[in-house]
Amino acid sequence: MDAHPAHSHQSHPVFCTIVPPHLLDRLSRGESEALSGRARRTLERDASQRTRRRVITIRHAALAPARPPADTADQKPQRTIYDAKKKETLPGEKVREEGDQPSKDASVNRAYAGLGATFELYLSAYGRYSIDGSGLPLNASVHYGEEYGNAFWDGEQMVFGDGDGEVFRDFTLPVDVIGHELTHGVTQYTANLEYFGQSGALNESVSDVFGSLIKQHSLGQTADQADWLIGVGLFTDQVEGEALRSMKAPGTAYDDDVLGKDPQPATMADYVDTGTDNGGVHINSGIPNHAFYQLAKELGGHAWERAGQIWYDTLTSGGLSPTCDFAAFAAATAKAAGSRYGDGSAEREAVLKCWSEVGVAPQEAAGK
C-alpha cells in the first residue's frame, strides 16, 4: 500500500480541457492564418489558466465521503450559470440560478441542463450527492473568450467557449463534454489521480467513461444502443470526423487534412510514449476507454448499472494511489467487481477479460 493512503493528502485540482493540446497544436501550425491564429490564442489562454491552477490549491481532503442517500428527495442540484460575455474574467455575470425559468440564450440552457444531467446520474446511480459527495454547488460560465475553442474544468467550475465556427461549434452542445469535465471534479475529490503519464490518462479516461454514461443515462440507452463517441456535434461540417474520441474504436474519431488523424491507441501494443500533453494523457486514455467499452458490451444492459458501478467503486474505494498505472487500476477494478458481485462472478470475469483484450495485465502496485 502507498505510504500515504489516497484520503490523507490534499487534493490538487488540475486544469483539464476537453480538446487535447495535440489537436490545437496541429491546428496552430496549419496553413490557414485565421484558423492557426485562433488555435494559438486558445492554447495561450489554456496555458495561462493552467499556470493559475498551480498557484491555487483547494485545501480539502481528497476523499470526501458521499453523503448517504437516505432521502434523495432533499438532494437537489444547486446550479448557477454565468455569462463571461466573450471576456476572460471568471465567472462573469450571473444569468440563471437553480429553479429559474429558461434563458433566451441556448448556451445558458444547455449548460444548466448538462449540469443537471451529471448531478442526476451520480445521485440516482451511485448515491453521490453532487461531485464532492456533499452537495457542492455547480457553477458554469458560457461565452468565455473570443472564438475560444475549448471547454474546461478549472478545479472550481466549468467554463465553455463558443468555438470558432469553422472547426468547433459551441462547447455546450454535447452533454458528454459537460459530464466529462465535471467528472474531473469527482476524480479530484476521490482518487485524485495525478495528471501525468498513465495516472493522467486514467484521469482523462474516467472522465470519458462517465461523460459517456451521463449521455447514455439522459437518453435511456443500453450499451448496444450507445455510440460510445465523445463530443459528437462539436466539429463543424467542414471537419472530416464525427467526434473528439471513440471508446468503441479509438483512433477512428476523425481523419482530417487540417486536424490530422485521431492518434488514440486501443491497446498497449500501440501505447504512445510522448513528452507532450503531460505524457499523452489525452492519447493513451484510449486504452482504458476501450477496456471499459468492452466491459459494458460484455455485460450488456445499461452501462451505468454494472460496468459503471465497478468503475465508480474503484474510483471511490480509497485504495488507488494518485500515481497508479493501468495495471494497478485494472487490479483495483477486478477487486471492486469481486467485492460487489463475488470473486467467481460473471462481472469479475468480464473485468479480467476486458483488460486482457487491451493488453493490460492487472497487477497490484508494488509495496502493497
Automatic annotation (TrEMBL):
Residues 63-72 have a biased composition (Low complexity). It is found in: Secreted. Residues 73-103 have a biased composition (Basic and acidic residues). The keyword Lipid metabolism does not apply. Its main location: secreted. It is an enzyme of class 3 (hydrolase). Pfam families: Peptidase_M4, Peptidase_M4_C. Residues 79-188 form the Peptidase M4 domain. Residues 63-106 are annotated as: Disordered. Extracellular zinc metalloprotease. Belongs to the peptidase M4 family. PANTHER family: NEUTRAL METALLOPROTEINASE (PTHR43579:SF1), PTHR43579. This is Neutral metalloproteinase.
